[in-house]
Amino acid sequence: MFNNSRAIPIILFGLLFTFFILSLLGILQGPADISLNHIGEILRQQIVTSQTTNIPQWQSSIIMDVRLPRVIIALFAGASLALCGLVMQGMFRNPLASPSVLGVSSGASLGAVIAIYLGFSLISAWAIPLFAFIGAGISLAIVYRVASNRGQTSIATLLLSGVAISALNVAAISLLLALSLSNWDVARMIIYWTMGGLDGRTWDHIFIILPIVLSGFALLLFYSKQLDLLLLGEQHALSVGVDVKRVRRNLLIISTAMVGASVSVVGGIGFIGLVVPHIMRLLLGPTHRYLLPACLFAGGITLLGADLFVNTFFNGQAIPLGVITAALGAPFFLFLLVKQRFLLH
């Protein structure tokens, strides 16, 4: 572990540096060859609107309408999932807790699929986010209610109920997919959302996810000390004056909103919320004022890195990002299950 005080700034700076390097690579990558100088000129033109440039309009359109939105959404969607996983692992004091394991991600996916199936997604751009928020909230409320008794939360019951709710949500999504096969456009949209991806993302999607993730991150920083105390146990947190029920409820609401925003924009992408927080804890220790910015950067790095990997090695093939993150995250999840198997007894 590199959780001493001298290593922490180095690790955070390394994450920030990687964050910006991958962002630059994401803007550079694509079938159209656009030089770094041209990209700089295009960005300066957007910032200083009165500035004139000789850059072709098609290059400006590719950067501003295709590549830059894709990079921004990847960074903030990954950050959202990692932050929510960190919060859930801290609240429940278990490295296996995450939005996907607890049924939150699948609940958000089900909500989005319902909006698509009923045609609400064609009426308003906010239909999918709204339904995703509702689906995530209902799933988490059920899981938390089943696992809680007299103010105490059973970790084993929490995990098992999360698996059960996830299975139920997946079954409902499969049913809606089967019912929509007669309408291929709807079925294709459902398949796309459940597998996750960044194709076709625009500034409208950024305006959905960006304010929620940034405001959620600010609120989580406010609760960083309470998260540290919850790691020591509910009784200890109560003894030092923490209103555990209120703090936990507020943190769950924030996490649900962030997961809903992420799923509504990029679809169902799992394991980032499980793997990234656990690795950051190994590197930085348990203090959330360091873990929160670390997960913000590392989550964005992970999802954008997965997108760069797909575009580099599967160029021209529609490989969903959810497949890549699952292929990387599932073995790590199995390792955690073996390591924490005593929790299930």
Please report the number of helical segments. 14
The first-to-last residue Cα distance is: 28 Å
Unreliable parts:
none
What is the makeup of the main sheet? 2 strands, antiparallel
Strands side by side in the biggest sheet: 1-2
Strand content: under 5%
Shape: globular
Helix content class: over 70%
Mean pLDDT across the residues is: 85
User: Order of helices and strands, N to C?
Assistant: HHHHHEEHHHHHHHHH
Number of folding domains? 1
Name of the CATH architecture: Orthogonal Bundle
Computed over alpha carbons, the radius of gyration is 20 Å
CATH topology: ABC transporter involved in vitamin B12 uptake, BtuC
Give the CATH class.
Mainly Alpha
How many distinct beta strands? 2
Look at the structure and name the CATH superfamily. ABC transporter involved in vitamin B12 uptake, BtuC
Structural class: mainly alpha
Quick structural summary:
With 345 residues, this protein is an all-alpha fold.
